[in-house]
Structures are given as C-alpha cells and as structure tokens.
Amino acid sequence: MIPVAVPDLSGNEERYVVEAIKGTWISSSGTFLDRFEKEFATACQTDHCLAVANGTVALHLALLTLDVQPGDEVLVPALTYIATANAVRYCGAIPIFVDVDPGAWCIDPEKLAEAITPRTKGIIAVHLYGHPADMDAINQIASAHDLWVVEDAAEAHMGEYKGRKVGSLSDIASFSFFGNKVFTSGEGGALTFNDDALLERAKMLRSQGNDPHQRYVHRVVGYNYRMTNLTAAVACAQIERADTILARRREIFETYDRNLTGIPGIKFRPVMPWARLTPWLYCLTIDPEQYGATRDQLADYLRENGVDNRPFFPSMHQQPPYLELAATQNVHLPQSEHLSATGLNLPTFTGLSDTQIETICNLIADRARAAN
Length: 372
Ligand SMILES: *Cc1c(COP(=O)(O)O)cnc(C)c1O
Hints:
This protein is α/β, with parallel strands linked by helices. The protein has helices at 13-22, 31-43, 55-65, 83-90, 109-112, 135-144, 196-206, 229-239, 242-260, 288-291, 295-304, 323-328, 334-342, 354-371; strands at residues 48-52, 73-77, 94-98, 120-126, 148-152, 160-161, 164-165, 172-176, 189-193, 266-268, 275-276, 282-286, 310-311, 343-346. It has 2 domains: 13-239, Type I PLP-dependent aspartate aminotransferase-like (Major domain) (Aspartate Aminotransferase, domain 2), CATH 3.40.640; 242-371, Aspartate Aminotransferase, domain 1. It has a 7-stranded mixed beta sheet with strand order 1-9-8-5-4-2-3, with helices on both faces. The protein has a 4-stranded antiparallel beta sheet with strand order 10-12-14-13. The structure holds pyridoxal-5'-phosphate. Pyridoxal-5'-phosphate binds next to helix 3 and helix 4.
C-alpha cells in the first residue's frame, strides 16, 4: 500500500537526537529548542516563536494568551480539522461556524460580518490544505469590529500571502509538526507573533503560570505545553532542509497536475493569485456526474489497488461533538458541505516516486473510463 504521508528523516534528524541524548538535554530546555525557536521565527518573518507540544495545544495557548473567556464567541471556518473548534471549546468559548469560500477554501471574508455579534471576540483563519486565507480582508473586518485574529497555519508552513509569510499575518499564528505535516518532529507545535507582551504571557501560560523571576511562584493557573529538546532536535533537522523538502513536494504536485489533466470530472485545487501554496497533501475534488463515480467509490477503488488516500475533513456542523451547537446556529454552509463530500487527498511525501504518481493517476483515469 502506498501511504498518504511518510516523514522525510533523511537529514540530521538522527544525529541531532543522539547529540541531545549524549548531552543529557532531553527535557524542556536546551540548544535545539533555542535554535528551533530562533530559526522558525526567522522563517516566518516574525520576531518571536514559542515551541509547544503539538498543534492543538498551540491553538489553545494562543486563545488563552488572547484571554478568551467562557461564553465568548470565536468565528471559525466550518471546513477544518477538528482541533480548531476544540481549542475554542477548551476555553469554554463558543465556535461559530462560518462557510469557506470557493477560491481559497478558507473562512469566507464575505460571510464574516453577518456572523459577528456583541459576544464575538476573534477570528481563527485556517490556511486550509496549505492555501493561505485572504488575510487582508479578514484583518480589515477584524479591526473594524475590534477582534483579534489567529492563523491556524498547521497545514501551511512557509506559505505566502501577497509575498508575506504565513504566520506573520495575524496577532498569533499556530503551527503543527505532527507526523503527516510538511515538516514534522513527531508531535510538536509552535506559535509565532511579534508582540512582546503576548510573548511573555504565552511563555508564562506554557509553563504552569510560572513567574518569570521567581521559581515555584505561579501567577495564574497555567499548563505544561512545552516541547522537549529531543523533539526540537528533529524539528531543527527539518527546518534546515526546508527548501529541499518543499521543492520535492512542489515537483510532486506538478507531476500530479500533469498526469491528471483531461480526466473528466477531476477538478484541481484552485490557487488564488495572491497565494503561494504550501505543498501539504495533494487535493482534488470529484464531480460524480462527469467522473462516473463518487469520491468514496474512487477512494475505495484506489485502496483496493494499493493506494491509500483521505477524504476531506467533514464539515464541523456534521461532527458529533458539534451537532447540537451547530443546530442552534443559522447553519447554511453549502461550500463546506460540498468540499467535504467531494474532496480527496492523495499520497504526498518526498519519497514518493514519479512512477508511483503515474500509477496513481492511471488508476484514477481507469476508474473514469470504466464508468464512462
Ligand atoms: C494538524 C492540525 C492541527 C492540530 O495539530 P496537532 O499537532 O495534530 O495537534 C490543527 N489544525 C489544523 C488545521 C491541522 O491540520
């Protein structure tokens, strides 16, 4: 079976982990942590980066840092990985589901205004499947209504919006370094931002609310959301090869595009003129009428023939933990529903060969021919 994702650990990953172990710096301080935070901030064109345990706690920590309170409303895209909405719930706040737009597949700026109430405190913009959200439009609405903005950039490391780096386009951005992301440290996460006061508050909350000047004196109920130096060792080895990893993944995207062109009913992911896409998981959508089979039928066919794949995320209002909440909202989310019913992710990892991509694309073409 060709898997969907395989981490590329062919650089200094092993050497750096061994170095951390030999030096006994395996816990939550060490040179790899310092180096990762410095280099990732530089890569994101921000002043600060904080390393954390994973992308979900990165989001939670971002919201806590922005002082999200129980009962606050936070606007989130309906089409996202569930962690985005869960982080809002961890604060006791209420995620308000907003539809995505057909171009970027991210939270639709035109739908934001109508979702804002006196209880709205902020917006989480998810750069979905590596494509940056329309941040100028989102930030403009946010500043008109005095809202904060968080980027959930878990899928969009080093992507660009109008030439500016993802992660530098909001009050706080969060990243994930999970095993299937573009860069991975196994589990891992990060926040990026520019504001010094937010940095100090996030640092304190990351480490049990500890007073920065007095050990064992805790100012607030905080968390242990730290990353280990072992994890950071892997992350450093990934970041130093960022250009190579991104270049190979871009080639894979181009090879898919070339080999899938002309198959009836196979639609490519749109890319907005202002976007530089991060090549995370290759996306396509299926028009079942034209293709002659549904997304799920194609997914099964690929798996039967040794090619693993993933359907797009279910829309949040269709997820069991959010059914009840969504039913209280004015749920009209046609774009999220459409994409979640028709979207498919294909294998994307640096070790995938061009021959394997051709095999996958031939299977997709064969299934269309069998139907038509
Ligand atoms: C992966 C992901 C997360 C969560 O990251 P973890 O490291 O798995 O906790 C959050 N948001 C989005 C959009 C993601 O894709």
